[in-house]
Amino acid sequence: MYETAARIERLKPPGRRAFLPWLFILSGDVQSLFKGKTPLPWLGGAGAVAFVALYVATVYTGLDERRRHTRTPLLALAGLTAVTYALGIGYAGDWLLCFPLLSLASGIALRGPGRRLGPLILVFSGSAGVIAGIRGGASDSLTVSYGTVLSGLVTAAILSLFETVAQLRATRQELARTAVEKERLRFSRDLHDLLGHTMSVVVVKAEAVRRLAPKNLEAALGQAADIEAVGRQALTEIREAVTGYREGSLATELDRARSALDASGIEAVIRRSGPPLAPQTEALLGWVVREGVTNVVRHSGAVRCEIEVRGGTDRVRLEITDDGGGVGSRAASAADTAGTAGAAADGAIGGTGLKGLAERLSAAGGSLESGPGGHRGFRLVAELPVDAEEPMETEAKEARRA
Q1: Whether 360 contacts 350, CB under 8 Å
Q2: Per residue of the chain (402 residues), what is the pLDDT tens digit?
Q3: What span, in angstroms and rounded, lies between the C-alpha atoms of 196 and 247?
Q4: How far apart are CA 252 and CA 180, in angstroms?
Q5: Could you please report the per-residue DSSP string of 213-255?
Q6: Cα angle vertex 314, ends 350, 318, to 5°?
Q7: For residue 292, which of 307, 311, 275, 271 has the smallest C-alpha distance?
Q8: With contact defined as beta carbons under 8 Å apart, do 145 and 129 qualify?
């Protein structure tokens, strides 16, 4: 089911010109007009010209989103209906093929809920069958009647399907954007709540130092010591907050990834095997899962994403694959991560784009590879030692030893 939906999503809806070649089924009638085999050929020619003009007008206005819900396509369809009945009753024969074309145009102009397309097509089909039965025979009646029903309903169903897919795609993109915005808002709110009170205290005490320094140096030094203590405490709280945000367990990140993919309408397949991992290894792999899934949700256009974690005795491998648009759809992602990687180089958290992840994994003895995942899709592969440590942690341990 997901593969079928993916194929439909990649197809383009039929345009206006796609319905014009169906007019060639009237070529036999037009030839009869030129050869003089049709009574009153000038009248038949005028009817044929009017039919073609009204058919084209109905198709073009019915597929124009700006004029689709106006009276223009309905008026064109009404004129087309009158001409079709006139040609069918007056000439019968192959002119009854105008009824399937009329039904097709009706499917374009009246598709959608509440437009009463079904009863109208049944009326056209019944009329075509009655006229064909009177002027021809039972076989002609069944053929024309069946063709009239089928052409209108199939056309309306195909166009409605493409419109539904477009709406689902827009909804999925909006859900992905909303999920990213909520996560950013949550983290910014956490930092605001954490630093708001602390910075207020620092400002107040700094003002006290400025006032007391000329008068009472001892009191000013006491306030300065308080500022130092508050600052150290703030740094500790920031590290704890960032560590909790950055170094959640891999299982937690996988659960979040599944939730984000499900919310975006992407089928999530997650597999994990192997022994338990060191906390730093899980933290790094969690970053890879977060970044990889974010790119899948925001830029891939995929319907299926697989995440597999395979642990061995020495190394662990994480692979994220999707069936989306491939490398081309990652252009926007590259633009996003390029800025964040540069900004992260000056911060304590580290890079957040694919480039920053590759640098962090390389410093921990691992690797990160990304590229096409076969004929379609994208593949992200990360490998790490089972006991990997980030350079920041190593430096911190060496500092404590010193």
Answers
A1: yes
A2: 445 555 655 667 777 778 888 888 877 777 777 776 777 777 778 888 888 899 899 888 888 877 777 888 889 899 999 988 888 887 777 778 888 988 898 888 888 776 778 888 888 888 888 887 777 656 677 888 888 888 888 888 888 888 888 888 888 888 888 888 887 777 777 677 667 667 767 777 788 888 888 888 888 888 888 888 878 877 877 776 666 554 557 888 888 888 778 767 789 999 998 888 888 888 889 888 888 888 887 777 888 899 999 988 889 999 999 988 766 555 544 444 334 333 333 333 333 467 878 888 888 889 999 888 766 788 999 999 887 655 444 444 444 444
A3: 24
A4: 17
A5: TTT-HHHHHHHHHHHHHHHHHHHHHHHHHHHHHHS--HHHHHH
A6: 50
A7: 307
A8: yes
Cα 339 to chain centroid, rounded: 23
Structural Rg of the chain based on CA atoms: 34
C-alpha torsion angle, residues 151, 155, 161, 167 (rounded to 10) = -160
Beta strand extents in 131-204 (DSSP E only): none
List the structure tokens of 100: 């399937």
Q: Are 309 and 280 in contact (CB under 8 A)?
A: no
Long-range CB contacts for residues 270-273, cutoff 8 Å, separation at least 24: 270/306, 270/307, 270/308, 271/306, 271/307, 271/308, 271/309, 272/308, 272/309, 273/309, 273/310, 273/311
The SS3 call for residue 112 is coil
Q: What angle do CA 277, 282, 287 make, to 5 degrees?
A: 160
In sequence order, the 6+-apart residues with CB closer than 8 A to the CB of 283 are 246, 247, 248, 390
Give the burial string for 334-364 (b: 16+ CB within 10 Å, else e).
eebbeeebeebeeeeebbbbbbbbbbbbebb
pTM: 0.47
- The packing angle between helices 117-135 and 138-212, to 10°, is 160
Buried/exposed code over 281-294 (b: 16+ C-beta within 10 A; e: otherwise): bbbbbbbbbbbbbb
